[in-house]
Amino acid sequence: MPFTRRILTWVALVFTLMALISNAARFSKLDWIIWDDYVEYWSASHLNLTRGNPYSPEQIKAVEYAIGRHEKIPLMMWNPPWTLGVILPLALFPYPVSRLLWYLIGIAIILGCASWLWQKHGGERKRLWLIWLLTFTFAPTLHVLKMGQISPLLLLSAVGYWACIQRRKDWAAGALAALALIKPHLLYLFLPAVLVWAMLKRRWGVLWGFGLAIVAATGLAWAINPALMEQYWIAITTYPPEAWRTPTLGGMLRDLFGGRYFWLQFAPSAVGAAWLALYAWKRRTNWNWERQLPLIVLVSVTTAAYGWVFDQTISLAALIPAAVTLCDPRRWQRNCVDHDCAPIRLAILSAVYLAVNLIAAFTSQEQHWYWWMPTFFLLWTNAVWLHRPADLP
Questions:
Q1: pLDDT number for residue 50
Q2: Helix, strand, or coil here: 129?
Q3: ∠135-369-190 over CA atoms, to 5°?
């Protein structure tokens, strides 16, 4: 068996290297750049480095045109200014080189987070290849790497925060939690949970790390371009994202009841906030990040006002712990009176996941039609967790 695993590992490695080389060669081609989201981050960072306006459609269009994206509508970066402080170093390289570097960084972040989650939740080290297979066949992972989005940083934020809290490295935990502010609407439940928990537990290092990370990232971008904050404010007040149709519950509600009701976009988030308040209150005396974090991440992504399929990569923070439960017979047999039912339930849940993941990976409808995906992952994960004994993580 070890020999077979070794052969499979080498085969997987060869295919991975071939895919890397193939994609690296495509990053500078016109047909790739047209659809590549990383263009927006590189262009905005490049403009900020040259004291341009990273939130100006006209200036963004000029930069994107120069690197080969000849579209009438520019691809804009709407992330807050501190985002530029995080990704600014990548703009020091030419676009193709920068894109390849970000591709490798994205793979490293996802691989590292997946491996840590698997082992932290009790997964066997010899089965790490299984979780790597699940992670890199997960449809949102494929999308996020293909599009060059920065959502892996949010996965790093949640998982890295938890890992540092486990080691009592509170400053680092706070700094990593601050990465969630790159897309604050996605982990909008995670952030208040972190800050309130830190205050109640008097873990002041978390708060200091959080605040200093924001100040450092914003200060770096602002020091280069002193007009940055004003430019961002003008952009979000002049071009608010009212017309975006995103695959979220809020987007679905607007499709049903009329796009003019902008407030419907945020209705699920209001429900999510109320849920968090009740959930946290009930567990205020026995809070356990190992159990609470995966569910908070899932509910946050499911009820987010805005989000895309590639953003659901963050759901790995919950799907991998669920996969540990699926792969551990103890967790099933101790919850089944008839032990024969365990393989049947395992097969059904696995088949349902595979079917939905294949649909997400190999269909090409407009993104807003995939609004049901976060809700499915939330329900599926909780169905698996029904078989998680109280004395097991």
A1: 92
A2: helix
A3: 55
Please tell me what DSSP assigns to residue 307: -
What type of residue sits at position 13?
L
Distance of CA 8 to the CA centre of its chain: 29
pLDDT < 50 regions, the chain: 1, 30, 337-339, 391-393
User: Which tokens sit at 39?
Assistant: 């263009």
**Are 376 and 255 in contact, with CB atoms under 8 Å apart?**
no
How many angstroms separate the CA atoms of 325 and 56, rounded?
Answer: 48
300 contacts 377 by C-beta, under 8 angstroms = no
- Angle (CA) 324-327-331 rounded to 5° is 80
Structure tokens at 54: 């990273």
Q: What does each C-alpha distance from 153 to 86, 156, 209, 218, 341 come to in angstroms?
A: 10, 5, 17, 17, 39
Could you tell me which residues come within 8 angstroms of residue 73 by beta carbon, excluding any fewer than 6 positions away? none
Check residue 146 and give its pLDDT. Answer: 86
Q: How far apart are CA 266 and CA 2, in angstroms?
A: 51
d(CA 47, CA 162): 35
Q: Which residues contact 16 (CB under 8 A, 6 or more apart)?
A: none
Amino acid type, 226 = P
Domain boundaries of the chain, sorted by first residue: 2-385
Question: What is the tens place of the pLDDT at every residue in 269-279?
Answer: 999 999 999 99
Exposure of 118 in the CB half-sphere (CA atoms within 13 A): 22
